[in-house]
Amino acid sequence: MSPARLTARATGALRGRVRAPGDKSISHRALILGGVARGETTVTGLLEGADVLATAAAMSALGAGVRRGDDGTWTVTGAPELTSAAIDCGNSGTGARLLMGAVAGHDVTVVIDGDSSLRTRPMARVTTPLAQMGARFEGERLPMTVRGGSLQAIRYRLPVASAQVKSAILLAGLRAAGLTEVVEPEPTRDHTERMLRAFGVEVGVQDGAEGRHIRLMGGQPLTATRITVPGDPSSAAFPIVAALITPGSEVVVEGVLLNPLRTGLFETLVEMGADLKVENAREISGEPVGDLVARHSRLAGVTVPADRAPSMIDEYPILAVAAAFAEGDTHMDGLGELRVKESDRIALTAEGLAACGVQVDERPEGMTVRGLGHAPPGGGTVRTLGDHRIAMSHLVLGLASEAPVIVDEPEMIATSFPGFAALMARLGADIMEA
């Protein structure tokens, strides 16, 4: 049984080497693309969190062969023609939205559902372009019925930067007649484009006056391949920030994905004065990877450029924790997407930090953290509404605050970071049941 609450308390310096769980975005895409490819795809390093396991179960229900070997390697036998099914995406917005694109081009009827949180999240941003391509949808939010087949390619300019929407359109475009083109005003994570190439698909990318143009001709087959999933930078952020704010700490997180469209948090931390270095830089499965070395640092508040948000959208709660320890204010804007994540992450971040003695000024699409220049008082009980990133961020706060910090509903941490408390304990952290 999962604990109802977790408590984090200061225990001194954090030291050691750890490996972050596999990247969640790449894990979802490996299962979905492997599931529609010809042949048998092998995936090592897959994130075995609840969100990704829901996508594995969904692809199996749709007709792909998905199995885990005793050594942790996953094998996906593709079903180039998917079958009708009812699938449950759990808490995963990425899984639900990408699967809508994947099934839209097949002559199937698929019912997509999720948990109570996912049922509240907006889906029109995906269904609108897919409907323009010819897919039909019943319902505006989950549960939703998708009827696919006979798609026509479109040119679509994203109204907001969203890798999920872009990816859904490209996945549908694989089975659409003609050239599908997505124009994104700001570049977003490009894992779909990179992985499509790994599966043998030609994808064109060109920057222009309107933004970045991604083009894909329909009818291209996918050929099975081998995928190695690097460590998730969003997960690596937690031990890294913990080291930066805890005196005497030095932590190495090995094998972290360093795709330039995912490293906004690390750039921002360096701008704040973080002693954060990359060692052993290399490339794995077409993605740049390295080992991150973080040492305790005196941080200063900064203004984070709004156009950096797409490269660090999931990391703002943990950045806010780092900012609480910094000298001066840290201003963050362009964060409207955080209002419609697993929770309203702006509101819950502000509420949680306030409970621990840190002032946060909210704006509709941003927030300012009033840094203390020293350890915050802590001592709060943080309401998470089951949001894994809110929970982990405030647990990191508790590792260096004056008094312990308690978070509620921590069971959802397993959606993205199974074994979080145990990994942090290997570095010397004290995170226990409340």
Largest sheet: 4 strands, mixed
The percent range for strand residues is: 25-35%
Number of domains: 2
**Topology-level CATH name of the largest domain:** UDP-n-acetylglucosamine1-carboxyvinyl-transferase, Chain
What CATH architecture of the largest domain would you give?
A: Alpha-beta prism
- Just give the CATH class of the largest domain: Alpha Beta
Total beta strand runs: 26
Please tell me how large the radius of gyration is.
Answer: 21 Å
Count of helical stretches? 12
Unreliable stretches:
none
Biggest β-sheet: strands ordered side by side in the sheet: 24-25-1-26
Helix vs. strand class: alpha/beta
What number is the mean pLDDT?
A: 95
The CATH superfamily of the largest domain is known as: Enolpyruvate transferase domain
Helical percentage: 25-40%
Instruction: Calculate the terminal CA-CA distance, rounded to whole Å.
Output: 14 Å
Give the CA-based shape. globular
Question: In short, what is this structure?
Answer:
Helix content is 29%, strand content 29%. It has 434 residues and is α/β, with parallel strands linked by helices. The chain is globular.
